Amino acid sequence: MRVVILGGGFGGLEAARALARAPVEVTLIDRQNHHLFQPLLYQVATAALSPGDIAWPVRTVFRRQRNVTVVMAEATGIDTAARVVRAGDTLSFPYDALLLATGATHSYFGRDEWAPVAPGLKTIEDATDIRRRLLLAFERAEVTNDEAERRRLLTFVVVGGGPTGVELAGAMVELARHAMPREFRRIDPAMARIVLVEAGPRVLPTFPEDLSAVALRSLERMGVQVRTGTRVTHCGPDGVECGDERIGASTIVWAAGVVASPAGAWIDAERDRQGRITVGADLSVPGRPGVFAVGDLVAATDGHGRPVPGNAPAAKQMGRYVGRLLAARAKGRPAPPPFAYRHHGDLATIGRRSAVVELGSIRLTGLIGWWFWGIAHIYYLVGFRSRVVVSFEWLWSYLTFQRGARLITGREPRGGNAVPVPGQVRVPDQGRALGEGAQHKHQQPAPAALRAG
Amino acid sequence: MRVVILGGGFGGLEAARALARAPVEVTLIDRQNHHLFQPLLYQVATAALSPGDIAWPVRTVFRRQRNVTVVMAEATGIDTAARVVRAGDTLSFPYDALLLATGATHSYFGRDEWAPVAPGLKTIEDATDIRRRLLLAFERAEVTNDEAERRRLLTFVVVGGGPTGVELAGAMVELARHAMPREFRRIDPAMARIVLVEAGPRVLPTFPEDLSAVALRSLERMGVQVRTGTRVTHCGPDGVECGDERIGASTIVWAAGVVASPAGAWIDAERDRQGRITVGADLSVPGRPGVFAVGDLVAATDGHGRPVPGNAPAAKQMGRYVGRLLAARAKGRPAPPPFAYRHHGDLATIGRRSAVVELGSIRLTGLIGWWFWGIAHIYYLVGFRSRVVVSFEWLWSYLTFQRGARLITGREPRGGNAVPVPGQVRVPDQGRALGEGAQHKHQQPAPAALRAG
């Protein structure tokens, strides 16, 4: 039996693993060469971890599982009648069973023109892009002479108060307040303003209300300005608008909504408003024989009619279920009972020594929650090497308050200070010190050598 | 006294450090936010280390040295009459003393059109670009059905047999032979062909001849094809030409030559053919009062008329010298004696348990040389964190033969297999297996699921 799995995220990986001892040929196709541990991606965006710490080549994961062939390619279409997946002009993959596990991407609710100014956080490139924007804002604030511009540069808006938004905002305020002080001479990075905007009535809306309240207090104590019940009506290069209010900001991060990847459209399946495929009780796609779908690509319900969340544990449970179902089918055994999501809990970290954890009726907050969060995440990383490196980076950051990967890399967004070298340009010094025009409460005396022309 | 330092490499950093207790105001300007440990950059390019392991924010380095202001900006001109450095339209930096430490970049000997197909290795972006090309070549070889194309994809040419070229070629052959096997199903990565082309008569031309011979034997034993006395006459997307010989290759890395950065042209200083500034015995630039230059930007001689090499230890010695000279001047003390380069030795690693080390009359090779090389490099990294992380990554790679940062990131070069998703495309399966047309000695049986349309 030929099984094709589209997507090397949590769902796809678990499905392939569950087929380890089944008499099937698995082809796992992903457009990236790596599996990414998305729950820690915000730590790459805030310079705490390196991309290599939380990503592993998919091939390495299946090095010893000989019935899996890994292909790095981007699927371009699916013919469900002929049962073949196509990637570009030259590659096609016939299947007896197809698992769609292509995940979700950020949704701008029809305002895709906001994407360039308000990047989301789904890939390594997203994370290093956000990291560059964050760090460049401080660099530019240090050299500007314009007080209003400096305020704008040091204002950061996170749109969306779910786990990603909360974790990002917490990590950003820690970066500014703990990792950077004493390194700048003209600005105080601790003056950075981090605004978290959430349209709903509370942060972490999927958590119990009391934990939302704990998270809100933690964020506010750390210095994050939280605006619940506030809808962003415009994003632009100068900042965001929320109805009549304008928040001047240099850096906006989008953590507000997701939309399913287009795999549902390729097979013309029934989908909900977020593009998620409606699946049957065995996670199969109705009317598309042999096709299954898992993860945040689907709208599934647990045994009690409640929606299954779009997170990593749910994707893994679904992937494992389909893997086992196909293994049973290949071995000629009876199919397992319908998929039932088991909710083990939910957790989010807010910052240093602060996290909220819900484990059924058990609630953990503060230091205990934070330890639980850290150990759980280390446990779920792939392989010994990542566990050691991430543990060490966290220990080192905890003890020194520093960040290990504070690199500005990649192409700069337009409009920066740094311009390509045009050769020799001689300009007379106009003799006005950069610092003279601007008086700043926390400002160091401007060094005489730093002047504006 | 206002000291402006252009460049946060080894020379600029040492100069600023040597001014720690001097009554001066130092402004250190770099277009990057980080100091990069270039000697280990080839390990980023070959997926062994992450960029964050060998780069540190310049500001963090000078966090406690309050007389240093770090500015991330790109210098665009220098007015030596008015004594001011200019960066873009808004920033200018008057100086009493100016240190040029802007380094060198790769030189294509007038054939700059080769740059897109034969990238050099100077920045983090260069390293992740080369890493992407290397890893993508294996991914594409795995899915191609064309035997000639597969051979071309698995051929890698390193141009230049100096330390960078030798270390890169060694690391590439190890990546192919030790880190990747068992992960591919249709190719044997160990069949990859790595060709090292050197125009001169021997590799490591700056080393003693016996060590060049040791390095050559090591490379050949590892499986690198070394072509000395061979000049590359053309680089293109299909490979390189060396006179009449054509070497089909998907990936070319340029490690053949360097040219000084344009700082010498900005101040219209006397320069040699490689653009290096001719400096006086105190590393000052003749006819440009208050201007000094260090590192591989200059052509300097040691006390005996021999040229000072363009490597990290020499840059550090020069930087320290100018820092001390300026400190003496600021304190009203007599100037130090003329700069004298002290050669401590030279070292290059070739691969697992193989390196060549020259320490005056002492020579170390093989395992002992390799240990010496490793310990020396760990010692020179900045900070406890990097030393621990790099040591651990090396230990882990040594024990498992794997690489920790095998990520394909960033924009792909044009012409790849992966194409953007154009929506739903239905294509009939033409039923010919990808593997059928190609017979391959080391090939695994092609899985039936992998077919070509």
From TrEMBL, chains A, B:
Keyword field: FAD, Flavoprotein, NAD, Oxidoreductase, Transit peptide
Origin superkingdom: Bacteria
FAD/NAD(P)-binding domain location: 1-319
A Pfam family the protein falls into: Pyr_redox_2
Cited InterPro entries: FAD/NAD-bd_sf, FAD/NAD-binding_dom, NDH-2, NDH2-like_C
Name used for this protein in its record: NADH:ubiquinone reductase (non-electrogenic)
Region (Disordered): 430-453
The family this protein is said to belong to: Belongs to the NADH dehydrogenase family.
Biased composition (Low complexity): 444-453
Catalytic activity line of the entry: a quinone + NADH + H(+) = a quinol + NAD(+)
Enzyme Commission number(s) of this protein: 1.6.5.9
Entry-linked SUPFAM superfamilies: FAD/NAD(P)-binding domain
Domain External alternative NADH-ubiquinone oxidoreductase-like C-terminal: 343-399
